[in-house]
């Protein structure tokens, strides 16, 4: 991943967020609000949207204590990706038409690719709960 001072700040904030359930829940509410404001028609791939929603479900399951099978480093970086996404001021400010979310999507896809095995484990866990409920 290329050096990005804003993502480095998000990583530092993520460790504080993960240590407090209330902070993580607040972050998830900010994520939900931001996901509703994104014009998904401008995003070329539906995979990005699904990745953000998957990430939200994973962090919610973690916050509620339902899913704890994820190592600290992926959890930290995935949380940092959410912090980066919800913060409107970053490497490319979100208000710039056409390109404002490019860096946010790049961060998300990079982190998702790096920890795809952990994401897949969560998705499998999630599906197993649906069938056992």
TrEMBL record:
Keyword terms: Membrane, Transmembrane, Transmembrane helix
Coarse class of the protein's main subcellular location: membrane
Keyword Transmembrane helix: yes
Tagged with keyword Membrane: yes
A Pfam family annotated for this UniProt entry: DUF1232
Topology within the bilayer: Multi-pass membrane protein
Localization per Swiss-Prot or TrEMBL: Endomembrane system
Chain ranges of the DUF1232 domain: 76-109
Name of the protein described by the UniProt record: DUF1232 domain-containing protein
Xref: InterPro entries: DUF1232
GO CC annotations on file: endomembrane system
């Amino acid at each position: 991943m290329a050096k990005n001072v804003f993502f480095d700040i998000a990583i530092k904030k993520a460790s504080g967020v993960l240590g407090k359930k209330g902070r993580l829940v607040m972050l998830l509410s900010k994520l939900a609000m931001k996901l509703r404001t994104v014009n998904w028609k401008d995003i070329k791939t539906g995979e990005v949207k699904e990745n953000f929603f998957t990430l939200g479900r994973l962090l919610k399951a973690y916050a509620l204590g339902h899913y704890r099978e994820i190592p600290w480093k992926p959890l930290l970086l995935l949380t940092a990706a959410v912090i980066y996404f919800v913060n409107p001021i970053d490497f490319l400010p979100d208000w710039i038409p056409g390109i404002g979310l490019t860096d946010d999507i790049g961060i998300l896809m990079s982190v998702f690719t790096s920890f795809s095995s952990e994401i897949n484990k969560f998705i499998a866990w999630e599906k197993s709960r649906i069938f056992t409920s």
